[in-house]
Amino acid sequence: MRVLGGLWAWFRPILTEQILPGMGQTLILAQIALVATALGALLLFPLTARRFAGPVGRPFGRVLLVVVRSTPEYMLAYLCLQMLGPSMLPAIIALSLHNAGIIGYLMGRHADAIPYRPDAPHGLNLYAYETLPRLYGQFLAFLLYRWELILRESAIFGILGVTTLGFYVDAAISELRLDVAVMLIAATALLTMAVDAFSRTLRRGLRINDLPVSSRQQRGGLTPSTEADRSLRLCERSEAIQRSAKVSERPAALDCFADARKDDGGFRPHHL
C-alpha cells in the first residue's frame, strides 16, 4: 500500500496539472482544425474538378492543391507563427490548409469520375444537388481518416507554445524529467488510439468503411449505398421492366436479377 500511495502521490500532479489540461487543449485544437479542414476541402475540390474549373482553370487548381498538400504542416505552422505570434491560430491554419489540400484533391478526382446525366444543371445547383450528395460518403471517409492524424499533429504542435500535450512533453525533456515525459508520451498515444478507434466505429456505423468505390462501380454509374438502396433500385428496375413491352419470354424478375448481377458484380439480393 505504501508503494501504491507513493506512486499515486507522484502521478497525481502529473495527471491533474499536465495530462488532463494537455488532453483538453489537444482535443480543442484538433476539433477546430477538423472543422476548418472540412470547410476548406468543400471549397477547394471544385478547383480540380473538370465540370467546375474547366479545361483552363483545372491545371492551375491541381497545381495549387498539390503545393498545399505537399508543404509540410510544420513549415506552414512556422511561417504562420512568425506572422501571427504564438497561439492556436498558426496551428489551426497549418493543419486545416494541409489536410484540406489532401482531401480536396482526392474529392476532385472522384468528382471527375461521376457520370452526370445529359440535362445536369450548372454552377451552384450542380455543386449542391448533383456533385456534393454523391461525394458525401467519400468526404466523410476521408475526413474521419484524417481525424486521427490531425489529433497527433495537434499534440506535437505544443512545441509552438500551445499548451497541448507536446508542450508539456517538451518542458519535461528540457527539465530532464524523463519519467514525466514518458508518462505524457504514453497519454498522447492512448488518446490517439482512442480517437482512431472511435473514428473506425463511426465509419462502420455510417457504412463508409469500404470507401472509395471501385472503378468498375464508377463506370457502371453506381455509387456507394446500403443493401436497402440496392434492393430499392432492383425493385424499381423490376417495375419498369413489367411496365415495358414484352421483349422477352423470361419473367421480368429474372431479367432484373440478371441485370443486377451484371451491374453490381455478382450481387445477390435477399429479396426482389
Name the overall outline: elongated
Helices and strands: which structural class? mainly alpha
Number of strands: 0
* Average predicted local confidence, pLDDT: 79
CATH superfamily of the largest domain: MetI-like
From the 3D structure, determine the CATH topology of the largest domain: MetI-like fold
Using the CA coordinates, give the radius of gyration: 25 Å
Order of helices and strands: HHHHHHHHHH
Structure description:
Residues about 210-230 and about 245-270 have low confidence and may be disordered. Helix 1 (about 1-45) packs across helix 7 (about 180-205). This protein is mostly helical and about 270 residues long. Helices cover about 75% and strands about 0% of the residues. It folds into 2 domains: about 10-215, MetI-like fold; about 225-265. The chain starts with a helix and ends in a 9-residue tail after the last helix.
Task: Offer a concise description of the structure.
This protein is an all-alpha fold. It is 76% helix and 0% strand. The longest helix has 43 residues, at 2-44.
